[in-house]
Every structure is written in structure tokens, then in C-alpha cells.
Design brief:
alpha+beta, globular, about 180 residues, three-stranded antiparallel beta sheet, two-stranded antiparallel sheet, binds zinc ion, 2 domains
Length: about 180
């Protein structure tokens, strides 16, 4: 029978699967061909072929990048001067395993210009960092002792600046500290 008309319909059926921050999308491609013949009979052929898998990376959110950078940076700060895993609280001198200590900020974390500044951030015990609100006065004096007079003031002025880190900047910083932490 001669074919009068062939109607091709394409449809895609996406199947999604989530793995961590990666979204996998599989497309199953169906093609159906409807054949209309001279005698009026019609038939539909369904052809399932071409299993296509598309790996699509979900863009990480800004807050998740900030969180990841905080985490890698904190590991660096707590381990950088540690001796056999033990680090010293910058403001009271308490010695403990770096995992029990925290990354304290001289100028608050709310200031992004100094949030990941290796001078602004030092190891602190929970008592100093949380219960004594960071011991900012002692923190400042110790900074001047360690890095030179005027350091605390400079960090304060630096904290007032407005900086806008792009997501790419954040990703680069995450990689930098991640790699650095592997060497510690
Ligand atoms: Zn302390």
C-alpha cells in the first residue's frame, strides 16, 4: 500500500536522578510514526531508540559556596600552626586538638572584606570565641604583637570596605584552601 501521509511525533521523557549536587537527566527519546494508508487504515509505529544521557551540573548556590569556603578556611586556620595536631587559643593560650578549637574572627564574619583574611582569623577556644564574644580587645593586642603595631587598626579599616566576591572567586578560594589543607 502506498503511504499517503507520515506523521512523525517526537517526545522526550526526562528521568531525573539526584546525586549530591549533580543532577543527572536521562532523556529517553521516543519517536512515533503514524502511517496513513490509501485504504484508510492507520497504524502507529513506536520506535524507542537513542538513549541519551545528559549530565547536567547543578549550579551551586552562593550560600553553599560561602559555607564551603568557611569550612575549608577554618580547617586551614586551625591547623596552620598546629604541632602534632595541637593548636593554641590566640586569646587565652589554651592548648587543645585543633578539631576541638574554632576559627575566631577579630572583625566579625559579617564583614566579607576580612572574613577570609588569614590575619583577621585565628584559632580560639569555645570559651573565648563564644562565651566571651571573641575577646576582641585581647585579640587586637595579640594581633599587633604577632604581626606588628597597627595591624588591628588596619584590619578594622579593611573590614569597612565593601567587597563583592563572585561565585568564581569563591570557587577559586575553596580550591586554594582545599589544596593547601592537603599539605598540612
Ligand atoms: Zn581561649
Amino acid at each position: 500500500m502506498p503511504i499517503l501521509e507520515a506523521e512523525v511525533q517526537k517526545s522526550f521523557k526526562p528521568l531525573t536522578k539526584r546525586l549530591d549536587n549533580v543532577k543527572l537527566i536521562y532523556y529517553l527519546r521516543y519517536e512515533s510514526v503514524r502511517l496513513q494508508t490509501q485504504d484508510g487504515s492507520a497504524s502507529t509505529i513506536h520506535a524507542k531508540y537513542n538513549l541519551k544521557s545528559i549530565l547536567k551540573k547543578k549550579k551551586p548556590s552562593r550560600s553553599s559556596l560561602v559555607k564551603r569556603l568557611d569550612s575549608e578556611f577554618s580547617k586551614y586556620i586551625r591547623q596552620r600552626f598546629a604541632v602534632r595536631g595541637k593548636a593554641r587559643c590566640f586569646t587565652c593560650g589554651k592548648i587543645d586538638h585543633w578539631k576541638n578549637l574554632q576559627c575566631g574572627h577579630f572583625q566579625s564574619r559579617k564583614h566579607y572584606s576580612t572574613r577570609w583574611n588569614p590575619q583577621n582569623c585565628q584559632v580560639q577556644c569555645v570559651k573565648c570565641n563564644i562565651f566571651r564574644q571573641g575577646e576582641q580587645f585581647i585579640f587586637g593586642k595579640e594581633l599587633d604583637k604577632k604581626y606588628g603595631i597597627g595591624t588591628a587598626k588596619e584590619l578594622h579599616l579593611e573590614s569597612l570596605k565593601t567587597v563583592k566576591l563572585s561565585n568564581v572567586d569563591l570557587q577559586e578560594q575553596i580550591k586554594y584552601y582545599k589544596d593547601l589543607n592537603k599539605t598540612l
